[in-house]
C-alpha cells in the first residue's frame, strides 16, 4: 500500500509546490502517510454565521466609504468655486467659472492668442474706453481677421455678472444683422475678455459731434437710426423671451464697413417674460447711462421695453441736434438734452435746435415727422410712448419723405408744418374727431392730424411713396 501511495504521488511531481514534514521534521514521508498518521488535523469547517457577519461588516464599510466620498466631493465642489470668487474679490475682480459659460457658438480663447492679437495689450491698439474696461483693435489668425477686444478693468463697476450675461446672450440666443456678433471670450482669475467682430466705422457717436471724422448726410443718419431700431425690435419681439437692453446710447450703436448699424454691449440686459408685452416689467435696480435713463424706470425701478424706447428717443435727438445727452458746459436749462428738446418742441422751436451741419439738408415734412417721433419717445409715462416697431415704421416713413423731396424738381418750395404735439395741431386718439378735410398719420394707435392745405402741398411727395417709379 505504501508503494502504491508513493507511485500515486510521483504522478504529481510536475505540479509540486511545497512538501509537508512529519512531526519529526522528516520531509521524506509521503503525503498520504501524513494524512493516515493524523499528525495534521483537518481544518475546521467554516462557520457560516461568522462569514455572514464578516460580509455584512464589509458591505457596511463600503457603503460608508462611498457616502463619505460623495460628501467630500460635494463639499469640494461647493468650496472651490467660492474660493475662486473670493480670490477674485481680494484682488478687485470677480472670476467666472469657465465651465458655466457656453462654448457651442463662440470660441474660448487662450490668453496667448489675445495677447498676440493686441501686441500684449499695447496702448497703440486702444480704440475706446468703457465702463467694462479698455477696448482694443486686434488681429487674429496671422492678421486675417480684425476683431475688437474688450478687456475688463479690475476697478470696473461691471463684473462677473455682466460678463456672463453678455456671453450667454450673444453666444447662443442673439443672432441678427443689426446686432454685434460675439466671436469668443477668455476668462481666468483676474482676466475677463470679450472678442467681437470689428466695426470699421466705429460708433454712431463718433460721427455726430466733437469729431474729426467726416460728418454723415441726413439720409445716412436716418438709415442708421432705422437699422438700430430694427436691432432693438428683434430684442423685443424676435426672441422667445423679451430682452431689454437697458443701456441704449449712441456709443452702443456701432457701424460696420458698409455703414450698417449694430446694437452693442449687452452686459446690462435683462430677460423678460415669454412673449412680453409693452407693459410687462422687470423689477430691478436702476442701471444705465446718465441722460438716457427712463425717468419712469428711475422712479419706480420697473424696467420695460418702453425704457429702451425712451433711451432711443434721446439718441434720435442726439442725431438731430448734434450734441451729447448731457453737456455740463451749457447753460443750466440746456445741460440735459431730453429736457431741453422737449421744451423746445412744445414751444414750436424745433428749427432752432437742429445741428447747424444739417440745416438745409432736412425737408420740413421729414423734420416734422422725425421730431414728432423722437418727442413721443420721451413722454414721461411709458404707455404714451410708441413701440419699437412703430419707431421702425415711422423712421422709414420719414426717410421716404426725405427721398421724395430729394427727387422733386428744383425750385419746388416746401411748406413749413407745425410740430404736432399740443395746441392747435393736437394729437387725437378718436377717429370721429377728424374733420373731412384732414388726413391722419397713425403711430402706435395715436392719430396725428394734418390739415387739408398740408395735404395738397404734399401730393407730389406721397405720389413718390406710392409709386417710386413715378
Automatic annotation (TrEMBL):
UniProt keywords, alphabetically: ATP-binding, Glycoprotein, Kinase, Membrane, Nucleotide-binding, Serine/threonine-protein kinase, Signal, Transferase, Transmembrane, Transmembrane helix
InterPro entries noted in UniProt: ANXUR1/2-like (IPR045272), Kinase-like_dom_sf (IPR011009), Prot_kinase_dom (IPR000719), Protein_kinase_ATP_BS (IPR017441), Ser-Thr/Tyr_kinase_cat_dom (IPR001245), Ser/Thr_kinase_AS (IPR008271)
Source taxon at top rank: Eukaryota
GO molecular function: ATP binding; protein serine/threonine kinase activity; transmembrane receptor protein tyrosine kinase activity
Gene3D superfamilies referenced in this protein's UniProt entry, alphabetically: Phosphorylase Kinase, domain 1 (3.30.200.20), Transferase(Phosphotransferase) domain 1 (1.10.510.10)
Residues that hold ATP according to the record: 150
Pfam families for the chain: PK_Tyr_Ser-Thr
Protein name as it appears in the record: Protein kinase domain-containing protein
Source organism of the structure: Solanum verrucosum
Amino acid at each position: 500500500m505504501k508503494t502504491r501511495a508513493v507511485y500515486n504521488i510521483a504522478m504529481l511531481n510536475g505540479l509540486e509546490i511545497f512538501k509537508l514534514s512529519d512531526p519529526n521534521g522528516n520531509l521524506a514521508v509521503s503525503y498520504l502517510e501524513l494524512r493516515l498518521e493524523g499528525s495534521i488535523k483537518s481544518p475546521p469547517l467554516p462557520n457560516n454565521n461568522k462569514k455572514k457577519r464578516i460580509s455584512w461588516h464589509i458591505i457596511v464599510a463600503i457603503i460608508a466609504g462611498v457616502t463619505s466620498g460623495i460628501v467630500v466631493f460635494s463639499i469640494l465642489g461647493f468650496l472651490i468655486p467660492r474660493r475662486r470668487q473670493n480670490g477674485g474679490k481680494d484682488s478687485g475682480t470677480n472670476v467666472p467659472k469657465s465651465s458655466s459659460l457656453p462654448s457651442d457658438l463662440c470660441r474660448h480663447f487662450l490668453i496667448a492668442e489675445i495677447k498676440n492679437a493686441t501686441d500684449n495689450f499695447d496702448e497703440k491698439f486702444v480704440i475706446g474706453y468703457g465702463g467694462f474696461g479698455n477696448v482694443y483693435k486686434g488681429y487674429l489668425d496671422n492678421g486675417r481677421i480684425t476683431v475688437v477686444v474688450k478687456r475688463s478693468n479690475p476697478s470696473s463697476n461691471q463684473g462677473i455678472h455682466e460678463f456672463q450675461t453678455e456671453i450667454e446672450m450673444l453666444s447662443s440666443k442673439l443672432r441678427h444683422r443689426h446686432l454685434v456678433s460675439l466671436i469668443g471670450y477668455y476668462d481666468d482669475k483676474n482676466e475677463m475678455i470679450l472678442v467681437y467682430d470689428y466695426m470699421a466705422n466705429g460708433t454712431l457717436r463718433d460721427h455726430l459731434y466733437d469729431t474729426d471724422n467726416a460728418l454723415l448726410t441726413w439720409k445716412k443718419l436716418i438709415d442708421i437710426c432705422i437699422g438700430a431700431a430694427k436691432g432693438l425690435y428683434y430684442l423685443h419681439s424676435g426672441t422667445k423671451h423679451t430682452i431689454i437692453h437697458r443701456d441704449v446710447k449712441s456709443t452702443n450703436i456701432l457701424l460696420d464697413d458698409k455703414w450698417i448699424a449694430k446694437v452693442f454691449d449687452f452686459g446690462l440686459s435683462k430677460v423678460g417674460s415669454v412673449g412680453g408685452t409693452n407693459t410687462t416689467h422687470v423689477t430691478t435696480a436702476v442701471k444705465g447711462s446718465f441722460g438716457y435713463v427712463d425717468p419712469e424706470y428711475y422712479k419706480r425701478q420697473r424696467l420695460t421695453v418702453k425704457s429702451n424706447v425712451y433711451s432711443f428717443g434721446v439718441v434720435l435727438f442726439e442725431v438731430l441736434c448734434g450734441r451729447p445727452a448731457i453737456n455740463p458746459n451749457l447753460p443750466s436749462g440746456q445741460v440735459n438734452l431730453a429736457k431741453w428738446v422737449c421744451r423746445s418742441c412744445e414751444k414750436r422751436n424745433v428749427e432752432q435746435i437742429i445741428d447747424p451741419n444739417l440745416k438745409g439738408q432736412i425737408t420740413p415734412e421729414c423734420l416734422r415727422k422725425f421730431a414728432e417721433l423722437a418727442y413721443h419717445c420721451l413722454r414721461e409715462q411709458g404707455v404714451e410712448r410708441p413701440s419699437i416697431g412703430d419707431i421702425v415704421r415711422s423712421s422709414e416713413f420719414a426717410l421716404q419723405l426725405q427721398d421724395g423731396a430729394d427727387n422733386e424738381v428744383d425750385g419746388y418750395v416746401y411748406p413749413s408744418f407745425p410740430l404736432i404735439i399740443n395746441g392747435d395741431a393736437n394729437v387725437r386718439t378718436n377717429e370721429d374727431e377728424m374733420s373731412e378735410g384732414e388726413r391722419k398719420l397713425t403711430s402706435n394707435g395715436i392719430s396725428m392730424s394734418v390739415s387739408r392745405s398740408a395735404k395738397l402741398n404734399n401730393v407730389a411727395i406721397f405720389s413718390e411713396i406710392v409709386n417710386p417709379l413715378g
